[in-house]
């Protein structure tokens, strides 16, 4: 790998921007493609697939031979609410490769006894995000059922463009939530990004099953997400 390529990859990693190293075995050339860069030419589809799947690959076609090494930021889940569902969702998500943190200002719920070894914040979500901001590789799952706690992180997630935004609650609860968030200036199209009721429709009936449904929907969103239309700045 050329020094210039390594420097760009390191800069992208610091900014949590996905990057692909495209190496041409015939010309011995290489280039870095950042998520959001215009994609064109015979490798465009392969690069797009690599950004979504996270899989590196070799290619051999009439246009040339080479390989793609993909470097994705570690996907994260910010769970709002130290509730029973969170106790199941946290270890499942960790096994699936997500970095997970719990945010809940209710100190009676957010305890190390209930969430051993899990990063916990008892700050209000808005304050927690000042320390560790959201980004497009973070999923936000709001589970408290308390608008004072759930609404601000949903607003922040919408403004950030998080790849997944989900909120617990019935359709009636969500309709009231949509009315509240619309007052923040979001359009109906923007608010449609919120998955509610949260999780895939698998008939889940207990906290563990709801956690499975949520994680499945988060993974689905990560692997099918639209790529950003413009980069966050070329490192």
UniProtKB/TrEMBL annotation:
Residues 78-218 form the XdhC Rossmann domain. It holds the Pfam family XdhC_C. This is Xanthine dehydrogenase accessory factor. It comes from Rhizobium pisi.
